[in-house]
Amino acid sequence: MDFTSTSLQRNYPLHFIHGAISFVVHLRDLVGFKDFVRKRNLGSNEEDGFLKDFWEGAFQCAFPNSSREKNFDGLCTGEEKIETLPSSIFDMNMNSHSYTIYNAVYAVVHALRALYSFKRKHKVLPDKSQLNLLQQGSWKVSDPNQTVMEKQMKDSIILL
Fold first, then answer.
1. Is pTM, for the whole model, over 0.85?
2. Judging by beta carbons within 10 Å of its beta carbon (0-12, 13-18, 19+), is residue 58 exposed, middle or buried?
3. How do residues 11-29 score in pLDDT, each as one tens digit?
4. CA-CA distance, 78 to 41, in Å (whole number)?
5. C-alpha angle 26-29-30 in degrees, rounded to nearest 5
6. By CB distance 3.0 to 4.6 Å, which of 5, 27, 32, 40 could disulfide with 99?
């Protein structure tokens, strides 16, 4: 989800830069992402303080016993529809930052799953020894220049 500064987007005139510069990031829509966002409401997440603060700022309302109660006219019900917000406040489409984070998490989960399935497949080797993936020796990276120099010294013929 992409959260912006609501006070900047609502109160600061940005019309002078419209059309001056634009960036397009190509990305794919995630299946189920919009449905997940639509189902988010405060009725199901009352303990989420961040979402509560965002909700009050985005919908310009306040919850009972809120510190913002004086700043807004209406009371929040928690049933406001997030898709009614302008895209400058909350974009229902996944942006490039969200997509990058999604891909990073997906890559880590995929790697952990591959490691787990490899460990399960190769739990016991044919000689009845157990494979311990977590205690593998660390890999040593040698200096390529030193390696080349050592090889040249071994292969060189000294002519007198």
1. no
2. buried
3. 666 666 666 665 555 567 7
4. 6
5. 135
6. 27
